[in-house]
Design brief:
- By secondary structure, this protein is an alpha+beta fold.
Length: 106
């Protein structure tokens, strides 16, 4: 059976997660998957924000994520886009990310 979503795993109502390091939370997710018999094959993610411009940092971000995901950087595809100044994200009120991960049974 699957695990519940990230909001259930790391609720924002729990003070211990205030200011938490997201890479550490990701590591906990990878460890949980591994303990359930899975490893990461690849990840694809798009970050949606007006600012900052992320293109110069995507390779470094992929390498950092790959290390935590325990996979090769070539298996982490990151891209960034804007909303062309539309809506809350375009106004700079936030940043969104959509990501998919493929796991395999080990």
């Amino acid at each position: 059976s699957g695990n519940k979503d990230i909001g259930w795993q790391f609720p924002d109502t729990d003070p211990k997660y205030k200011g938490a390091n997201s890479m550490e939370l990701l590591k906990q997710c990878v460890d949980k998957a591994k303990s359930n018999g899975y490893s990461v094959v690849n990840v694809s993610a798009v970050v949606i924000c007006q600012q900052p411009k992320l293109a110069p940092y995507l390779d470094e971000m992929s390498a950092s994520l790959a290390k935590v995901l325990q996979t090769d950087a070539s298996c982490v595809n990151l891209s960034a886009t804007t909303t062309e100044r539309l809506g809350a994200l375009g106004n700079g009120d936030g940043i969104a990310c959509q990501a998919q991960a493929l796991l395999r049974r080990i």
